[in-house]
Specification:
The protein is of the alpha/beta class. It is about 40% helix and about 20% strand. Helix 7 packs antiparallel against helix 15 and helix 14 packs across helix 15. The strands form five sheets. Strands 1-3-2-4-5 form a five-stranded mixed sheet, sandwiched between helices. A five-stranded mixed sheet has the order 7-6-8-9-10. The chain has four domains: about 160 residues, Alpha-D-Glucose-1,6-Bisphosphate, subunit A, domain 3 (Alpha-D-Glucose-1,6-Bisphosphate, Chain A, domain 3, 3-Layer(aba) Sandwich); about 110 residues, Alpha-D-Glucose-1,6-Bisphosphate, subunit A, domain 3 (Alpha-D-Glucose-1,6-Bisphosphate, Chain A, domain 3); about 130 residues, Alpha-D-Glucose-1,6-Bisphosphate, Chain A, domain 3 (3-Layer(aba) Sandwich); about 80 residues, TATA-Binding Protein, CATH 3.30.310.50. It is globular. Helix 5 links the parallel strand 4 and strand 5. Bound molecules: 1,6-di-O-phosphono-alpha-D-glucopyranose. 1,6-di-O-phosphono-alpha-D-glucopyranose binds next to loops. Catalyzes the conversion of GlcNAc-6-P into GlcNAc-1-P during the synthesis of uridine diphosphate/UDP-GlcNAc, a sugar nucleotide critical to multiple glycosylation pathways including protein N- and O-glycosylation. Its cofactor is Mg(2+). Pfam families: AMG1_II, AMG1_III, PGM_PMM_I, PGM_PMM_IV. Keywords: Acetylation, Carbohydrate metabolism, Isomerase, Magnesium, Metal-binding, Phosphoprotein. It catalyses: N-acetyl-alpha-D-glucosamine 1-phosphate = N-acetyl-D-glucosamine 6-phosphate.
């Protein structure tokens, strides 16, 4: 076939570095940008096959999100805007690691296994973040698509969730919205304006939000979007990419892990602030109090605020819909306790990675999912959306029910249901605070986080750590879980787990306890256990 000849010819222009082996991880392939050209070309090929197979548009996003500027990566997006399925992650890993001369064989195996009709048209949407390597890497994706005769649309600089949104809009023939950046702003900002329209007594101070754009794509897109907000949200934008480095001492991951504000931003006491990550799919909120103490409101606090708001509205609307919150092992013990015991909502725990949370959230009428790191969204089942829509249009219901149904309908429209989205999450949180007339301090007091600490340990091969029970227990190496259990017993209200990262070459350690000193000590002791039992490299972890 002429197509395969073209693949061979083009593939030679995107050679694989000898001996390089990469896995499709928590969120696609990630490593130093210099090693990724062949991966991008091959993901262009794979996305084309996936499009032929599903007879739908597929997305390919070039980004390494929260990782450093010199890294890059790629995520594949399925037809409804969700992450690509697990069996195709395996195809991706095989294709990525095939030796140069085997590319065609692996490609043909996938075609055969998936029974792909090669005469079917293919359509691939491509987007990229602001990393300097992203331009040539996204060109390699486009080369891969054209080598297999697929059509592509290059959206250029977009946030990851914007590309997820485009794919969903395209495959729902515009029902989800218009597949343009302008369509994205119109949909989400209009919903925000509708939601906040009866809160007109808000002062400019209450409408003000201090935003750290992580020197990434989110900052550019917030600038573009601002006029659509009609001053109902007044954003002061920091780390807009004009001088600082991407994710360097700023951004959602830095703020969450370091538990401190981004460097170099002046924050007034009590001021409501938030940080995006490098591709704007995560957001965390924070403020400092009059004593200068930093307060973080992470994904768990967002999930709590959102699910409280939704539960209240569902009750007011008289709708009997099942609501659940999906978390990971990183969720603060206090948040889980509050959700289960005070709010009485169902809580489920999954492995790290929004792809896992997303699937569990789909099992409920209303599934609120958030990772503690600020990555999350809300999913409404089709039946739930229909019930809410019917009630909002019903002329025979009382004012209270009607008002709640209208608020629910606008809430659905302000949410990007395809994936966690910092911009959409920000609009949702801002709207809820405005509607409830709540300050960030009042939101923060819903429950008090248990002090916690996250650390990284470098080991020779992080795959020696295998976990079970949604990553809460280590199965291998032998003796590690026992060591963790014994360490945890030394502290009050303590919990700890370890897991290999799927985006960096490290093992992550999480610990929480009744005091910060205990959480820090436990995290350090567990790090030492990992270092000793799982083949640590470099210096032994030092106490904090
Ligand atoms: C990605 C995933 C997240 C995950 C994070 C950290 O985030 O999308 O779901 O929590 O990586 O993963 P790990 O601990 O395996 O490195 P992002 O924002 O980098 O795409």
């Amino acid at each position: 076939m002429a197509q395969f000849q073209e693949v061979l010819k083009q593939s030679a222009l995107h050679p694989k570095p000898a001996g390089l082996v990469l896995q499709y991880g928590t969120s696609g392939f990630r490593t130093n940008a210099k090693q990724l050209d062949h991966i991008m070309f091959r993901m262009g090929l794979l996305a084309t096959l996936r499009s032929k197979k599903t007879k739908a548009t597929i997305g390919v996003m070039v980004t390494a999100s929260h990782n450093p500027e010199e890294d890059n990566g790629v995520k594949l997006i399925d037809p409804m805007g969700e992450m690509v399925t697990q069996d195709w992650e395996e195809h991706a890993t095989q294709l990525a690691n095939a030796d140069q001369e085997d590319v065609l064989t692996v490609l043909k195996n996938i075609i055969e296994k998936e029974a792909i009709n090669m005469s079917q048209e293919a359509n691939v949407f491509v987007g990229k973040d602001t990393r300097s390597s992203s331009a040539s890497l996204s060109q390699a994706v486009l080369d891969g698509v054209s080598a297999l005769g697929g059509h592509s649309k290059d959206y250029g600089l977009v946030t990851t969730p914007q590309l997820h949104y485009m794919v969903c809009c395209q495959n729902t023939q515009g029902k989800y919205g218009e597949a343009t950046v302008e369509g994205y702003y119109t949909k989400f900002c209009q919903a925000f304006i509708q939601l906040t329209k009866n809160t007109s007594n808000r002062t400019d101070d209450q409408k003000h939000l201090c935003l750290d754009g992580a020197n990434g794509i989110g900052a550019l897109k917030v600038r573009e979007m601002e006029s659509h907000l009609k001053k109902e949200l007044q954003i002061s934008l920091n780390n807009d990419g004009s001088k600082g480095r991407l994710n360097h001492q700023c951004g959602a991951d830095y703020v969450k892990v370091q538990q401190k504000p981004p460097t170099g931003i002046k924050i007034n006491p009590g001021e409501r602030c938030c940080s995006f990550d490098g591709d704007a799919d995560r957001i965390v909120y924070y403020y400092t109090d009059s004593e200068g103490t930093f307060h973080l409101l992470d994904g768990d606090k967002m999930a709590t605020l959102i699910s409280t708001f939704l539960k209240e509205l569902l009750t007011q609307a008289g709708l009997d819909l099942k609501i659940a919150v999906v978390q990971t092992a990183y969720a603060n013990g206090s948040s889980t306790h509050y959700l289960e015991n005070t709010m009485k909502v169902l809580v489920r725990c999954t492995k790290t990675g929004v792809k896992h949370l997303h699937h569990v959230a789909q099992e409920f009428d209303v599934g609120v999912y958030f990772e503690a790191n600020g990555h999350g969204t809300v999913l409404f089942s089709k039946a739930a959306e229909e019930k809410i829509q019917q009630l909002a249009e019903d002329t025979n219901v009382n004012d209270k029910r009607k008002k709640a149904a209208l608020l629910l309908r606008n809430t659905i429209n302000v949410i990007n249901q395809t994936v966690g989205d910092a911009i959409s999450d920000m609009l949702l949180i801002e709207a809820i605070l405005a509607i409830k007339g709540m300050t960030i301090q009042q939101w923060d007091t819903i429950y008090t986080d248990l002090p916690n600490r996250q650390l990284k340990v470098k080991v020779a091969d992080r795959r020696v750590i295998d976990t079970t029970d949604a990553e809460r227990r280590a199965v291998t190496p032998a003796g590690l879980q026992e060591a963790i259990d014994n360490l945890v017993k030394k502290y009050r209200q303590a919990r700890s787990f370890v897991r290999p990262s799927g985006t960096e070459d490290v093992v992550r350690v999480y610990a929480e306890a009744d005091t910060q000193e205990s959480a820090d000590a436990l995290a350090h002791e567990v790090s030492l256990a990992v270092y000793r039992l799982a083949g640590g490299v470099g210096d032994e972890p030092k106490p904090l």
